[in-house]
Amino acid sequence: MGSQWGRDKVYQKAMKQGYRSRASFKLKEILERNAVLRPQDNVVDLGAAPGSWLQILKENTSGQIVGIDLNPIQPLEGVITLVGDFSKPTIVARVLDLLPVVNLVVCDASPKLSGHKSYDQARAIDLNKMALDFAIQVLCPGGNLVMKTFQGEDFPWIYRKVKEEFFRVTTHKTHSSRKGSAEIYIIARNFIAGREDLFDAEVQEEVTDSGD
């Protein structure tokens, strides 16, 4: 496995630039091409180990950042890390205690692959559902979600589920993904819950402007 990583140019580039994994460039690209993170947003990173996405988030926001993983995450200055299962109510409650507002939830987690495609995708979709449930519980109105999933027969189901909760949902395939990989990212913007007043205000503003 070491030689495989050694031949990976993206991995070598990540190490040279001080990032903890090649996945750092995936989030870099997503943030460059999708307006999901503002300079002072608070963010929660699910499945955050080893911490490369936390590094990129730290570069792009001065807000509070919380990383959660089943495994310990090497400390990163200015970032709070929690060890635990993000689907558990105790972790959700801890995040809500730490962050008065959550603007963005990101999740690059994936299950340990068995090599059986249909089984692996089903497990990945289960993980997606847990990440979506977490986001629904913590996101502020108008918040955003970035979540890795995998293309396959179950993908339309999770995509529809996300669309039920967000006003705008698209997908993004990163250049840093390995050739032939089925991974794809769901980019969900403007969390719907509690947005009625904001939406009405936006409509009123458009009406007022159009009368000038």
Automatic annotation (TrEMBL):
Residues reported in the UniProt entry to bind S-adenosyl-L-methionine: G51, W53, D69, D85, D108
Active site positions, chain numbering: K148
Catalyzed chemical reaction(s): uridine(2552) in 23S rRNA + S-adenosyl-L-methionine = 2'-O-methyluridine(2552) in 23S rRNA + S-adenosyl-L-homocysteine + H(+)
Highest taxon of the lineage: Archaea
Pfam families: FtsJ
GO molecular function: rRNA (uridine-2'-O-)-methyltransferase activity
Keywords carried by this UniProt record: Cytoplasm, Methyltransferase, rRNA processing, S-adenosyl-L-methionine, Transferase
GO cellular component, one term: cytoplasm
Protein's cellular compartments: Cytoplasm
Domain Ribosomal RNA methyltransferase FtsJ stretches: 19-191
Top-rank EC class of the record's enzyme: transferase
EC code: 2.1.1.166
InterPro entries registered for this protein in UniProt: RNA_methyltr_RlmE, RNA_MeTrfase_FtsJ_dom, rRNA-MeTfrase_E, SAM-dependent_MTases_sf
Primary location group: cytoplasm
Family membership: Belongs to the class I-like SAM-binding methyltransferase superfamily. RNA methyltransferase RlmE family.
Function description: Specifically methylates the uridine in position 2552 of 23S rRNA at the 2'-O position of the ribose in the fully assembled 50S ribosomal subunit.
Protein name per its UniProtKB record: Ribosomal RNA large subunit methyltransferase E
Species: Methanospirillum lacunae
